[in-house]
């Protein structure tokens, strides 16, 4: 299908974009890469009155490192993340995951900020942010604030954004004490995952974020504690019960729980620096 | 009114100016306004790859980009890739290997394959399959498409 009609606005600055967002009072949606929003509009799941194209906002671009943190502009495209030396050197987990995120043609347009703002429960990027203990920098008409990834994703397509735009993502630089792993199970390479997990291990502590399994990317504290205690894998997997697994046409909750366990087991076997 | 947008872009090397509805996809603009019907419209949600074309040299989904977003961009469709000779070797290999039957996926498949070849991709069947996993073909079973892409890589690098 085709998208319903809307106003197309193309601000040239962050301030102008925020003013447009406020003026439309919740009826406008920011357009980043559009690789998820456009399909949703074509399906008429989303029908915003206006699209505010963020393409010209130079404030949302660039990747810098400062004081042990990599700051990634929200409009950084997946293809740019893949080829960026800073990201490759300091955030290996993103490098592991990117080849699994959709396909070349989609990665050339899709952005990190767009994926986080949409909060698709099956998308990889929210889970990566949870595993990496990233912070999301968001700017509203009056102020800029930082939101921990753990506090950002509130539900299916629901975030802590309140009339604000994501301006950047702050990810801690990987340390020698860390190991990372990523695995997802899909029907076809590049499809949304039926179940997947991203793991960051620091010494004996784990942050394991599952995606594609529930209404949002999810960590399970009891499961992470069991990993830390080096419990038997059979015991670790029982803590997956804590997740409210999705039932849909692609997989029921029993299948999803099993696949999440497979993804976790495989990821833990292949953790690398 | 921001529901119709003035755009200026280059399509296959020619300057184009138009006023387009905000909701018009890039691929629909190319097909219906410019009569460049080589790019096909399949799923309209970015899954099938039939509308794959290049924008400023990068492959993109023509159905997931608005014509309005293409303002100031350089678009190359399969017509442009064929006329400029960029896809000649791939087209010949597709013919030789029977890498198409109905041909619906072929323009998108060629654009994706060209992206792989131009990026220096290896003649590695698994890597090629992974790269073209975003392009559905319902006729060939992909084997012959992978054969054709391998042929071009091996021919051009030996």
TrEMBL record, chain A:
Q: What class of enzyme is it?
A: oxidoreductase
- Keyword field: FAD, Flavoprotein, Oxidoreductase
Q: Where is the FAD-binding PCMH-type domain?
A: 1-176
Q: What is its EC number?
A: 1.17.5.2
Asked if the keyword Cell inner membrane belongs to this entry, the reply reads no
One of this protein's Pfam families, by short name? FAD_binding_5
Nucleotide-binding listed as a keyword: no
Q: Name one GO molecular function term.
A: caffeine oxidase activity
Q: What protein name does the entry list?
A: Caffeine dehydrogenase subunit beta
Q: Which organism is it from?
A: Planktotalea frisia
Automatic annotation (TrEMBL), chain B:
Q: Name one GO molecular function term.
A: 2 iron, 2 sulfur cluster binding
Question: Where does the source fall among the domains of life?
Answer: Bacteria
InterPro entries linked to this entry: 2Fe-2S-bd, 2Fe-2S-bd_dom_sf, 2Fe-2S_ferredoxin-like_sf, 2Fe-2S_ferredoxin-type, 2Fe2S_fd_BS, Beta-grasp_dom_sf, Diverse_Oxidoreductases
Q: Which UniProt keywords apply?
A: 2Fe-2S, Iron, Iron-sulfur, Metal-binding, Oxidoreductase
Query: Record keywords: Membrane included?
Result: no
What's its EC? Answer: 1.17.5.2
Q: 2Fe-2S ferredoxin-type domain: from which residue to which, for each copy?
A: 5-81
Q: What is this protein called?
A: Caffeine dehydrogenase subunit gamma
Which organism is this protein's natural source?
Answer: Planktotalea frisia
């Amino acid at each position: 299908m085709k998208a319903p009609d809307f106003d197309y606005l193309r601000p040239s600055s962050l301030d102008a974009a925020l003013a447009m967002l406020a003026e439309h009072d919740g009826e406008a949606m920011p357009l980043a890469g559009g690789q998820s929003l456009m399909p949703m509009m074509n399906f008429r799941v989303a029908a915003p009155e206006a699209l505010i194209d963020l393409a010209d906002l130079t404030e949302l671009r660039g990747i810098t490192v400062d004081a042990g943190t990599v700051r990634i502009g929200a409009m950084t495209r997946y293809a740019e993340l893949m080829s960026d030396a800073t990201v490759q050197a300091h955030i290996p987990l993103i490098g592991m995951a990117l080849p699994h995120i959709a396909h070349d043609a989609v990665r050339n347009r899709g952005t990190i900020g767009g994926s986080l703002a949409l909060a698709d429960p099956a998308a990889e990027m929210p889970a990566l942010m949870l595993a990496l203990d990233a912070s999301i920098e968001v700017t509203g008409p009056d102020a800029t604030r930082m939101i921990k990834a753990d506090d950002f994703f509130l539900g299916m397509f629901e975030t802590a954004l309140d009339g604000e735009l994501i301006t950047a993502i702050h990810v801690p630089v990987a340390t020698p004490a860390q190991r990372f792993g990523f695995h997802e199970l899909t029907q076809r390479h590049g499809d949304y995952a039926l179940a997947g997990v991203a793991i960051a291990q620091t010494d004996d502590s784990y942050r394991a974020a599952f995606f594609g399994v529930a209404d949002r990317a999810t960590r399970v504290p009891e499961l992470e504690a069991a990993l830390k205690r080096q419990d038997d894998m059979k015991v670790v997997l029982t803590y997956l019960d804590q997740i409210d697994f999705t039932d849909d046409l692609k997989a029921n909750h029993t299948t999803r729980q099993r696949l999440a366990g497979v993804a976790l087991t495989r990821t833990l076997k292949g953790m690398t620096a | 009114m921001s529901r119709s947008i003035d755009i200026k872009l280059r399509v296959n090397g020619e300057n184009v100016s138009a006023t387009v509805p905000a909701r018009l996809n890039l691929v629909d603009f190319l097909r219906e306004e410019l009569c460049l019907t080589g790019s096909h419209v399949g799923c309209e949600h970015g899954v099938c790859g039939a509308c794959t074309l290049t924008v400023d040299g990068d492959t993109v989904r023509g159905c997931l980009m608005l014509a309005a977003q293409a303002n100031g961009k350089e678009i190359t469709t399969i017509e442009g890739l064929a006329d400029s000779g960029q896809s000649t070797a791939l087209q010949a290999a597709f013919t030789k290997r029977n890498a198409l039957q109905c041909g619906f996926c072929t323009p998108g498949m060629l654009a994706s394959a060209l992206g792989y070849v131009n990026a220096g991709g290896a003649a590695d069947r698994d890597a090629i399959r992974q790269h073209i996993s975003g392009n559905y073909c319902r006729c060939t079973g992909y084997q012959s498409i992978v054969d054709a892409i391998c042929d071009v890589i091996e021919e051009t690098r030996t």
